[in-house]
Amino acid sequence: MKQFTFQTPSNIRFGAGVSSEIADLLKGYKAAHVLLVTDKGVRAAGLTRNAEAAIAEADIALTVFDGVDADPRSDLIEAAAELCREGGCDAVVAIGGGSVMDTAKLVAFSLVGITNETKRGLSLSKPYPGHRISH
């Protein structure tokens, strides 16, 4: 596959070896502590190894959340967000599929604060333990 960058408010990079370039992107954001969001299968397959190594080599602190499963439930999102807040993370990186991306986006969103208004927009106006975010 030919490498390319899909630029939106978030950076989504595709292509062989691009995960080893993550440190340069994080340095551009002046990130000091990163939460890497993934799932156990992706991590066990070694697909996060290059990114983890690049982050470590750049002296950026790293916390890994690899508990994502299909159609993540709200309590999983909240657990990842809490880990992020407790660790003082200032950046979120996702390596994996759609559920990993969804989880990472909601965790990153929580870093800037979720108000009652934004909760209504996300259909999360009431805390439902175990409620699935996507259908």
Automatic annotation (TrEMBL):
Show the InterPro entries listed in the entry. Answer: ADH_Fe/GldA (IPR001670), Alcohol_dehydrogenase_Fe (IPR039697)
The alphabetized UniProt keywords are: Oxidoreductase, Plasmid
Task: Quote the Pfam families the UniProt record gives.
Answer: Fe-ADH
A GO molecular function assigned to this protein is: metal ion binding
Q: List, for all copies, the residue spans of the domain called Alcohol dehydrogenase iron-type/glycerol dehydrogenase GldA.
A: 9-112
Q: Which family does it belong to?
A: Belongs to the iron-containing alcohol dehydrogenase family.
What is the protein name given in its UniProt record?
Answer: Iron-containing alcohol dehydrogenase family protein
